[in-house]
Amino acid sequence: MTKGTPYRESFVYVISMGTSKSPRNRATNDLDLKKWREYEDLITDSLWVINERDRSGAHSNHYHGNFIPQIPNQLIRRFSRAGDVVLDGFLGSGTTLIETQRLGRNGLGIELSSEIAIMAEDLIRSERTPDSETEQKIIVGDSRDTDLLPQIFDFCTSVGEAGASLILLHPPYDDIIRFSENMADLSNMGTTPAFIQAFGDVVENLEKSLNPSGHLALVIGDKYSKSEWIPLGFYLMAETLKRAPHLKLKSTIVKNMAGNRAKLNQERLWRYRSLSGGFYVFKHEYIFLFGKSR
To answer: Residue 18 — left, alpha, or beta (φ > 0 → left; ψ -120 to 50 → alpha)?
Structure first.
């Protein structure tokens, strides 16, 4: 177990829908580039303007902190193949595993809260596709805990893979929202340097499960504190490169923040606050994409 990490028992929820174990080549994705004109919905620019979240099926916006489903959808399709393993280190309400199930990938999510994990399991089960040859699994635990690595590799082996092709990390934005009373929760680290350190522990731990040609995506926004803009995105990007030297930064994506719950129907109030306080209202967050060097 990671030094200094509070102990918590790990539980496992398995949503099994068959297993795909046939060997496959290690191309990055399943796109047929002879038909590249047919992929008009795949974004290839570094500016993502998505004005409405996908609310189809099990996707919902009731969990404060989940990210829009289009983010994992875009990344999974670009940086994994059918049957690959996609690992989410901050699962939350299960958005990533709903998408892995829809897209024919094997999904593994780690969630600190057993209550949130149960909610995620229910949502994922409601999206069950009977003929899908994939497996979706939730581990309740701390993503910094090195004791989770054997469980991650066991899952990969069970579906015929050596490791994860894609890791998605959408951590708390420091202490903007306190998600629990658990002191292992990254939203309870107390200071921004401690938050950065804790996130680095997650990267250093989970990166070990990434395939040699795998990718890691970090979704993060910045914050204000005492009239100062705190560039969390760039802090965590730098921490990722420091903790995982085999990863190289491939892209920095800026995504608009549409329908932010904290600002919903308060545009005029936030405009006044901006004018009176001498700051600019947050309208974006980052997606940092890393790839393993070959």
So the answer is: left
| Residue entry with tokens 């579906």 | 159
CA–CA separation, 68 and 52 (whole Å): 9
Residue 10, pLDDT score: 46
Q: Against a cut of 0.70, is the pTM above it? A: yes
Q: Scan for tokens 């999510």, then name that residue.
A: 109
Strand order in the sheet with 85-88: 11-17, 134-140, 106-111, 85-88, 164-169, 210-220, 284-292, 247-256, 47-48
CA dist., res. 252 & res. 288, Å (int): 5
**pLDDT classification of 165: cutoffs 50, 70, 90:** very high
pLDDT at 34: 92
The DSSP line for 81-93 is -TT-EEEESS-TT
pLDDT in tens, 202-238: 999 999 999 999 999 999 999 988 888 999 999 999 9
Query: What's the average model confidence in pLDDT over 183-192?
Result: 94
Going from N- to C-terminal start, the domains of the chain cover 11-23+44-292
Question: DSSP code of 158?
Answer: H
Residue in 91, 169, 105, 164 with CA at minimum distance from that of residue 133: 105
What is the architecture of the domain spanning 11-23+44-292? 3-Layer(aba) Sandwich (3.40)
